[in-house]
Amino acid sequence: MQFYLDSADFTEIQQAWELGILSGITTNPSLVAKTGEDFHSLIQRICDLVDAGICVNAEVLALDAEGMVREGEQLAAIHPNVVVKIPMTIAGVQAVKKLCQKGIRTNVTLVFTPVQALLAARAGASFVSPFLGRFDDIGEDGVAALEDICDVFIHYDISCKSIAASIRHPVHVLQAAQAGADIATIPFKVLEKLYEHPLTKQGVEKFCADWAKGKG
Ligand code: E4P
């Protein structure tokens, strides 16, 4: 499973990029709005920071297919790393088809069911993003939905990749990996926690203390 960062905060993105484990970044309108930055300049800056081939996901705001295609083309023109995020609606899936025909990669977002994922994949989406946390929040099982999506994609040999999104804690990351997600997109605070274990900390402290004793 690959790791993406789920953030639009440039300082955070720089810090996470330095970790050396990222294969992509996902932004969304809420995250971008929080930064107060110009959307297209921010996407350009992120693309300039990361290596070639790293997916930088930028979401359209239009609600009609024509508008989504227009915005998608503008976003894709910013940099070859850009993947256009499109919401899982009828208009969204129509836009995916048109963007795919133009050779533009899309990530269908706000996916909650295997059938939604299948529709997006059949329209030509390169990625789908099942949201774990938001599904859990309404008493559903986000991980079970992700597992079902992974099973359906394997069953029909579908090349569309799954991005486990709306990740709230480290256990979600483990469950996404166990479900067979291709990618997990993770907020910075959760990403940092993945490195930690009390026994690792304790072990490092003991090695240092023993070394200092031996040398003394
Ligand atoms: C994914 O692409 C979305 O940006 C993200 O995972 C949404 O997560 P949230 O439910 O924590 O807002």
Strand content: 15-25%
Bound molecules: erythose-4-phosphate
Number of helices: 11
Structural Rg: 19 Å
Describe, in plain words, how this protein is organized in 3D.
With 216 residues, the chain is α/β, with parallel strands linked by helices. α1 (10-18) links the parallel β1 (2-6) and β2. α1 packs parallel to α3, α6 (114-123) packs across α8 (142-155) and α8 runs parallel beside α9. The chain has an 8-stranded parallel β-barrel, surrounded by 8 helices. The chain is built from 11 helices and 8 strands. The longest helix is centred in the C-terminal third of the chain and has 18 residues, at 198-215. It has helices at residues 10-18, 29-35, 39-49, 65-78, 90-101, 114-123, 132-137, 142-155, 170-179, 188-194, 198-215, and strands spanning 2-6, 22-26, 55-59, 82-87, 106-111, 127-130, 161-164, 183-186. The chain is globular, with a radius of gyration of 19 Å. The structure holds erythose-4-phosphate. The site of erythose-4-phosphate has 11 residues, from α7.
Architecture blueprint of SSEs:
Layout: E1 2-6, H1 10-18, E2 22-26, H2 29-35, H3 39-49, E3 55-59, H4 65-78, E4 82-87, H5 90-101, E5 106-111, H6 114-123, E6 127-130, H7 132-137, H8 142-155, E7 161-164, H9 170-179, E8 183-186, H10 188-194, H11 198-215
Parallel strand pairs: 1-2, 1-8, 2-3, 3-4, 4-5, 5-6, 6-7, 7-8
Task: Put the structure in a nutshell.
By secondary structure, the protein is of the alpha/beta class.
Give a quick set of tags describing it.
binds erythose-4-phosphate, 8-stranded parallel β-barrel, 216 residues, alpha/beta
